[in-house]
Design a protein that fits this description.
- The chain is mostly helical.
- It has two domains: 1-95, no CATH class; 97-133.
- It is built from five helices and two strands, in the order H-E-H-E-H-H-H.
- It has helices at residues 28-31, 42-57, 86-93, 97-107, 111-134; strands spanning 35-38, 65-68.
- A two-stranded parallel ribbon has the order 1-2.
- It is extended and about 45 Å long.
- The termini are far apart.
């Protein structure tokens, strides 16, 4: 069953994703899609992708896993996304995959393990930021912005 608010990145104009039929698995008929699921359900995505990878590695051929989800922000940093109703955004924010997975871990009694994993990830990010900030600026990779030399 398609999720309301699905946006296929092939169609990026703000209003087109609301058109009937686009949310109903755009590639199902064309590519013989095997899996279409709630992309905000971390566990379901993991299991579906694991199954597809295992099948491919055992010679079963490729698979397309279509994960239906919702872009929480606007199209770019300075896009306030005022073209979307606030209640729609709030509904989808309540389905945030990270928070949703954390609630599932807590409910399964894995909150201490989740806390430890989260602390390890935060430490790794902090280390990466510290390394980046201490590193010299990159040079010779891209031309200067704005035509400056």
């Amino acid at each position: 069953m398609p999720l309301e608010g699905h946006q296929d990145r092939t169609f990026i104009l703000p209003g087109i994703w609301r058109k009937p039929g686009l949310a109903a698995g755009l590639f199902q008929e064309a590519l013989g899609i095997q899996v279409m699921l709630d992309g905000n359900d971390v566990g379901a995505v993991y299991l579906a992708v694991k199954e597809a990878v295992d099948r491919a590695r055992s010679g079963g051929g490729p698979a397309l896993v279509e994960c239906l989800t919702y872009r929480q922000g606007g199209h770019k940093r300075d896009d306030p996304a005022t073209y979307r109703p606030r209640d729609e955004v709030e509904l989808w924010l309540s389905r945030d995959p990270i928070r949703r997975f954390r609630r599932a871990l807590d409910a399964a009694g894995l909150d201490a393990a989740a806390d430890a994993a989260e602390e390890a990830v935060v430490a790794e990010i902090d280390d990466a930021v510290e390394f980046a900030e201490a590193s010299p600026p990159a040079s010779g990779i891209l031309p200067p912005l704005g035509g400056a030399t």
